[in-house]
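Friendly challenge for the regulars: who can give me the structure tokens for this chain first? No prize, just bragging rights.
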Amino acid sequence: MGYLNFPPNLKDIFDDIYARVRKLETAQRFTAPVVAADPANTRKGDIWLNTTTNSLKTYDNNGAVESIDLTPIAFTPVLTAQTGTITSYTINYCSYVRIGKLCSVHFTVTITNAGTGANALFMTLPFNSAGSSAGAVRENAVVGSEGQVWTQSGINYAPIMLYNSTTPIVTNYQLIGTLNYITA
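First reply, four minutes later:
Bragging rights claimed.
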């Protein structure tokens, strides 16, 4: 009795896999040159990291230099409570880096007087969100609780809550966090 469809030859399959593994083993890693000034004689497809401007640059097919700025940009968010009112807070540090539509926000804020604020803490973002994203938060001054910061499509703020579903709006809490999201 013969097969209607012959089974594959295992030797051929393993030879193909082995050939692919050999190619991966010999692949070259590319590192962009690090320079203090843009090169004078660029060619299409060149890429370099300019340490003076702190930007990754490429020379595209149209002869233009594309630049990706890696310098964090400071911004001052507004903090509000889901319910009640926060009496006072301090923005210790808040910045973002935007590469294309990807925005990475880093922040450290201190609730100096919680007032009647309760439930989620809302923090404004530098750009509207195009979708749902979540990040991490740590209360760093009093109890060391972990939490999360997130956003949803079409909004320009990020709610913050602790993992045990308690409010982060407590006097003297210092919240340190990061949120990466896609901008609208």
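The mean pLDDT is 85. DSSP finds one helix and 13 strands in the chain. Your move, everyone else.
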